[in-house]
Amino acid sequence: MSTVPVRFYTPEEYLERERRAVTKSQYFRGEIYAMSGASREHILIAGNFLAALHTALRDRPCEVYNSDMRVKVQASGLYTYPDLSVVCGEPRFDDSHVDTLLNPLVLVEVISPSTEAYDRGAKANQYRQLASLRELVLVASESLHVERHHRGEDGEWRIWEANDRTAKLPLSSLGVEIPLEEIYRRIEFAPPAEAAAS
């Protein structure tokens, strides 16, 4: 039985292909991985969050990017597209194309069922290798739930969670709070199934 050999790409080959591509792909350890589409809820949540951050930071020296901004984790070589990236101060880029961010302060991923294991596991672990990163926010798209992973002064990561529309997400590295009501605007979830009567 023969197997088809896997084609490995250099980062330079990946970037050359990616800059010409119609769809987005991630890159890790020589392999290119196509990215899947997103649900209505995913798109609305990402857009709501972007709008809220843009408004909150409009008078600050910060830039908020949507999922078209690629991020490189230099320590591992991962190239990927977070749903949102925030940088304050001078943004640093991988090269003169200015399309691959190296120093995000905050990253946001909207979690879908098909990407949840990866987003919470391997991808989150790689994001934590970014020296600039202070907060990683994971937002559920099929239920109302937000997790904030925050790097403390001691370098340890701590978790804050909320599942109430009246809660406010504290982003201490940015000095702002984002109401969950804004993040989940126009999103309605079906109530949990009631337990069967005994």
Give structural notes:
The chain is an alpha+beta fold and 198 residues long. It has a single domain, classed as tt1808, chain A (Alpha-Beta Complex). It contains 5 helices and 13 strands. The strands form 4 sheets. A 6-stranded mixed beta sheet has the order 3-6-8-9-10-11. Strands 5-4-7 form a 3-stranded mixed beta sheet, with no helix packed on it. A hairpin with a 4-residue loop joins strand 4 and strand 5. The longest helix has 18 residues. The radius of gyration is 18 Å and the shape is globular. The termini are far apart.
Feature tags:
single chain; 198 residues; alpha+beta; tt1808, chain A; six-stranded mixed beta sheet; 29% strand
Write the layout of secondary structure elements.
Layout: H1 11-20, E1 25-28, E2 31-34, H2 40-57, E3 62-65, E4 70-73, E5 78-80, E6 84-88, E7 100-101, E8 106-111, H3 116-120, H4 122-127, E9 135-140, E10 146-151, E11 157-162, E12 168-171, E13 176-179, H5 180-183
Parallel strand pairs: 4-7, 8-9
Antiparallel strand pairs: 1-2, 3-6, 4-5, 6-8, 9-10, 10-11, 12-13
